Automatic annotation (TrEMBL):
It comes from Ammonicoccus fulvus. The chain crosses the membrane at residues 18-37, 49-72, 93-121, 152-172, 184-207, 227-251, 263-288, 323-343, 364-387, 393-414, 435-457. Pfam families: SNF (PF00209). Keywords: Membrane, Transmembrane, Transmembrane helix, Transport. It is a multi-pass membrane protein. NCBIfam families: Na_transp. It comes from the Bacteria. This is Sodium-dependent transporter. InterPro entries: Na/ntran_symport (IPR000175), SNS_sf (IPR037272).
């Protein structure tokens, strides 16, 4: 009885398998790949980080990606209803995941809006010689028209644009909205970002940057925090345990080769991440070269500071910096938008299914609500300050908790491991053996539990 009723096959569907794969890649490849991975890898052992990173990918990332796929595809719903169909009492886990999405979505939209403004600022290097002051004391002051000198391109207009875009795509639906958006944005992102990386590699000092990025610091492998960083990066980067992949997989056709598409998505995401590491560090190598110093002496190598302070600084010193800036900020926007839409679809579908309303209503309610909260919380400098706290709670603690609870519930309490594995294997070419249940049910919770304890202790 817990199975989805065949009667409700009016459910939306992806146009084709490629639509699903591109959308899943779009969700995975995001700000996390561009502004998080390079700095995290560098400060967690550089080249040596690739080892915990790969282990985290193979032992937890891909297995939990498969779990998300299996749940979404078998129970054909966004997280709250999908978990409810597995066991009535499990619905709150779905809402927890939806809640995480809500939180990530409201700041993600702000960052995309910043990147849109900075795309325009790249034309005339508007940030001047002191990008830090410009960003914090000028640009983010735009909430206050008296202080701000850049009201027109201030944060409010781009934020509104982001939310309008989200609304339009949501209303167009899974196949015609999200599917088409990714079909255009992902190839475009790959072209633009590749051009950026190639340009970066020809900058003087680029090779020193790569050296800094790749030279392994083996001692880092003895530090548990490095391992935690690797798992956290994999989870955030693959968008797993957030209910997104559950939602996206629920629109897959009944006969879909799921494990193979999962491997494609995971491989594409990690490749993009590595490419971003190369591009960012080649650029930082140039920055060190200009300042006559070492990459290790530089500061502000991740997150908003990397993108909106450090990069603007380098861009201003570079021949053809305007174009470089436009490529960089366009990449952030494209990567960000394709992730944000997955977040919005997750929240919107949860609401839609809970209240049995149509897609249009759910899309309107969710975008207006999230848009309002996002404008209210993130349109000023307080947003920049809130970002760290929000990021830590949702991306480090929330997501790990969600993954542990989801694994233990499905494998041990509901005992659905075998059923889900058979479901995954039914149409897939890459067969999942019993090892999958061991990874998801035992190794995953143990490693993640250890991580969570460590994180909480070091709060
Ligand atoms: N995977 C995205 C990134 O790397 C972030 C994300 C997390 C997107 C959760 C959707 C849901 O930036």
């Amino acid at each position: 009885t817990a199975m989805a009723q065949p009667a409700q096959e009016s459910r939306e569907q992806w146009n084709h398998q490629a639509g699903f794969i591109l959308a899943a890649i779009g969700s995975a490849v995001g700000l996390g790949n561009i502004w998080r991975f390079p700095g995290v890898a560098y400060s967690s052992g550089s080249g040596a980080f690739l080892i915990p990173y790969l282990i985290a990918l193979l032992t937890a990332g891909i297995p939990i990606l498969f779990l998300d796929y299996a749940i979404g595809h078998r129970f054909r719903a966004a997280p709250p209803l999908a978990f409810r169909r597995m066991a009535k009492w499990a619905e709150p886990l779905g809402w927890f995941q939806t809640g995480l999405l809500f939180v990530i979505g409201i700041y993600y939209a702000a960052v995309i809006a910043w990147a849109m403004s900075y795309f325009v600022f790249s034309f005339d290097l508007r940030w001047g010689d002191d990008p830090a002051t410009f960003f914090v004391s000028e640009y983010l002051q735009v909430g206050d028209p008296v202080v701000s000198t850049t009201p027109v391109w201030g944060v409010l207009i781009p934020m509104a644009l982001v939310w309008i875009l989200m609304l339009v795509v949501l209303l167009l639906g899974v196949a015609n909205g999200i599917g088409k958006l990714n079909m255009i944005f992902i190839p475009l992102l790959v072209v633009i970002f590749t051009a950026l990386v190639i340009r970066a590699l020809f900058l003087p000092g680029a090779l020193d940057g790569l050296d800094a990025f790749f030279t392994p610091d083996w001692a880092a492998l003895a530090d548990p925090n490095v391992w935690i960083a690797a798992y956290a990066q994999i989870f955030f980067s693959l968008s797993i345990a957030f209910g997104i992949m559950i939602t996206y997989a629920s629109y897959q056709r009944r006969k879909a080769n799921m494990t193979s598409s999962g491997l494609v998505v995971a491989f594409a995401n990690s490749s993009f991440e590595l490419l971003a590491g190369i591009g960012v560090f080649a650029t930082l190598g140039f920055m060190a070269h200009q300042a006559n110093t070492q990459v290790s002496e530089l500061e502000g190598l991740t997150g908003p500071i990397l993108s909106f302070v450090t990069f603007p600084k380098v861009i201003a010193e570079m021949p053809g910096g305007n174009i470089f800036g436009m490529l960089f900020f366009a990449s952030l926007v494209l990567a960000g938008v394709t992730s944000l839409i997955s977040i919005m679809q997750g929240v919107s579908a949860s609401v839609q299914e809970k209240f049995s309303i149509d897609r249009i209503k759910a899309g309107l309610i969710v975008s207006i609500l999230m848009g309002a909260v996002s404008l209210f919380l993130f349109s000023t400098t307080s947003g920049l300050i809130a970002l760290d706290t929000v990021d830590m709670w949702s991306n480090n603690i929330g997501i790990v908790l969600s993954a542990i609870v989801m694994s233990i519930l499905t494998i041990w309490i509901m005992r659905r491991g075998r059923e889900l594995r058979i479901h995954l294997n039914a149409v897939s070419t890459f067969k999942v053996g019993p090892w999958w249940t061991v990874l998801v049910g035992i190794l995953g919770p143990v490693v993640l539990g250890f991580m969570l304890v460590q994180r909480v202790i070091t709060l």
